[in-house]
Structures are given as structure tokens and as C-alpha cells.
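User: Quick sanity check before I run a bigger batch. Here is a single chain. Can you write out its predicted 3D structure?
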Amino acid sequence: MPRSGNYGYAVARIRAMEPLLLDAGFIQRMLEADGLAGALKVLGETCYGKALSGNAAQERYDAALEAELLSTFMELRAFVPDKDLVDLLRIQYDFHNVKVLLKSSFLAKSGGRKRWELMTGLGTIQADGLIVSIESEDYNLLPWGLSALIPAALAIWEQTRDIVEVEKVLDGGLFAAMLKIAEDLEMPGILAWVRARIDSENIRNLLRLKRFGMDAQKASSFLHQGGAVSAGTLAQLIAEPFEGWGRAIAYTDIGAAVSGVHDGGDFDTLIVSLEKALDDYCRDVLALARYSQDAPENVLAYLWGKEMEIKNIRTVLVSKGSPAGRDATERMLRNGY
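Assistant: Done. Predicted structure follows.
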């Protein structure tokens, strides 16, 4: 049975944490600051400040952002009744680490070097333990279906040497794992959010595939099952101009988000605008829970807000060292919590 009645205390704790999130005005202050050093000085006034102190702040801000996100995951996991709610956000990092390790293994066999420094500590599986499992080819105790997915990915690599096919298998496993967690929790709002994530990823993939001139039949193999809109329905969009996609799926919740994105003729600008709209859509799926004092969706809403906050911070900091103008940077910023 749904367990939303157990979330009154957790939601109260989250409400008390909300003032710690950075608002749009603060992100604008960072954007207006003079150079990377100026933006980091502004950021140093916040909960990120301790990790950014010292002379090496400009070189280690990625580590500081990761540390803050991990701290948030662990804080919520300490008081949320269903730990799997937090893990729904964390398992993507487990799959990221698996990809890093497999690619490193492939590179090492061809004379390259392993890139373990690209791994993250944000996943549910301890990085060192994951390295040992993959290096020793002992996957039996790995969660999230990885015990079967990793051998399947390795077999595909041996047969095809196609890293895209390897990633496709792992990405499909990620969304299947997320869907199973949501179904086991028996919380309709959580399941709706996972389906929104799947739909968003499918539409994002579809636009990239369209750029390469792929047909609907081949494109469908890159789309994941379990979304609110069937993969088969979405695959048919690839033959249509992007401007018509929103109208074609107007009967779905995600249709309005897609309709709000306009194709100005430049693919890079279009994909940035679409990704922002899809991230905002995933936030909006959880919006009604903000009016409830015991809805478990509040856990995901807060964590998603934190992830978007960190994405915005990283976007601003990266922009300080790139030729991208302020207008281009602002177009990439997600709406906050």
C-alpha cells in the first residue's frame, strides 16, 4: 500500500531546508560577477563556501559541488522513510561509474590509460568496491540489474566494438531499474516522475538521432520503454519537422513542454532549449506535491531542485572561462526549486 502517511516529519524537515537553496537572484549575482574568481567569491557566501576555501578553489569547484550534493543525499537519506526515494536520484551515478570503468577497460586493452578519475562518489555503490567487482569480473552482488547488464555490455563490445550499443544497453538498464523502484514503492506521483524522466530522455535522444537522418525503425531501438508515451509513438516523430512534435503529442503531458521550444534553425541552440524545457517539465510533474504536508514527492522535488541548482552553478562557472556570452548562458539556466 502507498506509504505517504509516513512522510509528515520528512516533509517538515525538507521545508526547514528549503531556505538553503539558492534562488534565481543569487545565480544572477554569480553571472554578473567579474570572472571565475568573482563568481566563486559570491558562491563562497553559501553552504558551498567551506569546500571552496583556500588558494585552489578555482581548480576544485567541481569537487566542492559534488561534495555538497552528496551531503544532501545523505542528509535526506537519514530521515526519509523509504531510502529508495533518494536512491532514485543516485543510481544514475552508479551507471555513470560503470560506463567509466568499462570504457577504461576497453582503452587499457588497446594501450590507453584507465580514466578512473572520471568516476563520482555520488552513487549508491562504493566506487572502490565497483572497481574490484569489474576488475575481478565478479558482478553477482551488484544491485540494479548490473549483474546481468555488465556481461551483456561486454558481450556486445566483443561482437561489435560499438560503444554506442554498449551505452544503449546500460541506459536501458538504468531506466528499467528506476521504473522498478517506483513501481515497488507504489506511490503514483513517484511513478509519474520516473515516466516523465523516461519520456524526456526519449525525446532528447530522438532529436539527436534526427540530426543524423535516422529512420523511425532504427531510432526506436534507442528509445526506452516505460514512459507515459510509448517508444513506438515517439519514434514516428523523427520523420516530422521538430515544430510539429508538440502538436503530434499534444494529448500528453509532455506535449506542452515540447511545444514551448522553438526551432531557430541552429541545432546547438535547439538542443539546449529542449533540454532546459525537459528538465523544467520533470520539476513541474512534482509541483503539486509542494502543497501537501505529507506527500513523498516532496523528497524528489527537493533533490531535483538541488541537482538543478548545482547544474546552474556549474553552467555559470564554466561560462566564466568560455567565449559564450551572458545571453547564451542565461538560456541554459534551469528554473529553480
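The chain has 17 helices and no strands.

User: Great, the batch can go ahead then.
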